[in-house]
Amino acid sequence: MDSTFQLFPESASQIADRVDALYLFLVAVALFFTFLICVLILYFGVKYRRGSLAERGNPPRSNLLELAWAVVPFLLSMVMFVWGADVFYDIKTPPADALQIDVVGKQWMWKVHHPGGQSEINQLHVPLGRPVRLRMVSEDVIHSFYIPAFRVKQDVLPGYYTQMWFQPDRAGTYHLFCAEYCGTEHAQMIGSVIVLEQDAFADWLSGETGDPPEVAGARLFERHRCGSCHKAQGGSGPSLAGVFGRRVPLKSGESIVADEQYLRSSILNPQQHIVAGFQPLMPSYQGQLNESDVLKIIAYMKTLEGNASASGEDTGDGNDQPPETEN
Ligand code: HEC
Ligand SMILES: [Cu+2]
Q1: Could you list the residue range(s) of the whole structural domain that residue 114 is in?
Q2: What is the domain-level CATH number for residue 271?
Q3: Enclosing H/E stretch for 215
Q4: Is the pTM of this model over 0.90?
Q5: Segment 188-205 mean pLDDT
Q6: DSSP assignment, residue 299?
Q7: Is residue 113 part of a domain?
Q8: Is residue 276 part of a domain?
């Protein structure tokens, strides 16, 4: 056999072996029953062929047999369910201390933004042995971020943040694919994930330049004159101090927690939620700010947290966050 033949792609993340084990189990169960049924079909086909003298009367009823083929498949499928749910839960639940990196998909490339301001295209540098959480959004159509060696794949949607996480456990360079057909050059929407030892990763980070997102975001905030309406007091828009994580009362009478998704739609689609007590005056920044810009402005708005002196509004629901020590 060809020595380069591999049943699975190389595995380089902490979850990969668990995914493979589950997958092997499913394949093994399927193969076992496929063969069992094939062999029985052939056997009975021969045994009861026309003209054979085999006994053709009804066999006596056996409750034990009836019970067995209800209970055995039930137990097997429960094993699949519990095992699958366990792996699924871990794949979907990023640890709180994960390093957060932003990914913006667009026809036909991946843009990556690191929290220190470093950016890259069609490459993703990550540190070895540390959980990494990707927050992802698309500039246009649906894409899908797929790293076979890590056994993770997640759709990247226009207008909605999705996330995925992994913990690389082997240094090296791995394939990155778009796994959702997204137009004529879909096949070119590929790249590499480069897993570096912690020291090498720190070196790589320091070799790249770029402003931290909250700094770049503050600049965009300035340039687009958001502050002309969003003043601490007396502006035509609400004060943005401490807005992230706050429960915002809406004109419709409902209220909503100002998470990243809400902040994004406030900027690109302001008519969707109107804050109680304000007029729908805010222009949409669709077309003026791209998804990377919006992520930066959100990073900036998060730093406005705890800046309570500028905020005249207390929603009084005890939801206030502790002040952040550094800005
Ligand atoms: C012409 C005035 C105006 C400008 C310019 C403006 N906004 Fe607004 N903004 C408003 C008003 C009025 C509201 C409240 C009504 C609503 O929800 O649409 C608002 C709401 C918001 C909210 C929701 C706030 C909350 O308390 O829930 C966010 C976030 C926001 N704006 C961000 C921005 C950003 C970022 C910019 C600049 C890119 C900007 N705005 C530019 C007028 C403005
Ligand atoms: Cu794509």
Answers
A1: 7-44+63-210
A2: 1.10.760.10
A3: helix 213-223
A4: no
A5: 93
A6: H
A7: yes
A8: yes
Q: Identify the pLDDT of residue 234.
A: 76
Residues with CB under 5 A from ligand 2 (ion): 143, 178, 182, 189
Q: What is the C-alpha to C-alpha distance for residues 174 and 205, in angstroms, rounded to an integer?
A: 19
DSSP 8-state code for residue 152: E
Q: How far is the CA of 308 from the centre of ligand 2 (A)?
A: 42
Domain end point (choices 210, 233, 261):
210
- 260-268 vs 291-303: helix crossing angle, rounded to 10: 120
Structure token pair of residue 49: 């062929």
Mutate to test the pocket of ligand 1, among 240, 282, 311 (most ligand atoms within 8 A of CB): 282
Centre of ligand 2 from the C-alpha of residue 107, in Å: 6
**Do 196 and 237 belong to one domain?**
no
Q: What is the CATH number of the domain that holds 31?
A: 2.60.40.420
Distance CA 98, CA 206 (A): 20
Q: Rounded to 5 degrees, what are φ and ψ at 6?
A: -130, 135
pLDDT at 184 over 50: yes
